[in-house]
Amino acid sequence: MQRIEIVHPFPPFYRPDSDILILGSFPSVKSREQMFFYGHPQNRFWRVIAAVFDDAVPQTIPEKRAFLERHRIALWDSIGRCTIEGSSDSSIRDVVPNDLSVIVNAAPIRRIFCNGKQSYGCYQRYILPVLQRDAEVLPSTSPANAAWNMTRLIEAWRMIRLQ
């Protein structure tokens, strides 16, 4: 597989009342095909977040949007453009970050979380100096993060519900 330059193909998801922002790194091939976040069925994001909020796991994009609205969660990615091979975070090069001001200026975001080290590293390097708002790193929900089983992920992710 060859590394290609890709511009993030879909906009952030947020509402005027979103108070939690969760950032991935860059959308997977499946997410790019679906034009929405965490589209690969093996990614554990939707199952983890549903367990954290004691809610049903959303299946369709409309259900996912309704879930995010209900729990006042905004979603986007740290990376706005990069070269990448398939869906591999480890292959990401030539990073251009997303401008998060579009979300934080439109919604009362209290806390920012990064889904995994790749997103957090990008946030720390490119976004924090501009935005001047700290983010917290959570273990990646990617199936590549096999060291973290569902129970451990859910426990770690519970922090997003803390005030």
What does this protein structure show overall?
With 163 residues, this protein is an alpha/beta fold. The chain has a single domain (4-161), classed as Uracil-DNA glycosylase-like domain (Uracil-DNA Glycosylase, subunit E, 3-Layer(aba) Sandwich). The chain has six helices and seven strands. It has helices spanning 29-34, 45-52, 61-70, 101-104, 117-131, 150-157; strands at residues 4-7, 20-24, 73-77, 79-84, 93-97, 111-115, 136-138. The strands form two sheets. A four-stranded parallel beta sheet has the order 3-2-6-7. It has a three-stranded antiparallel beta sheet with strand order 1-4-5, covered by helices on one side. Strand 4 and strand 5 (93-97) form a beta hairpin. Helix 2 crosses helix 6. The termini are far apart. The model has no long low-confidence stretch (mean pLDDT 93).
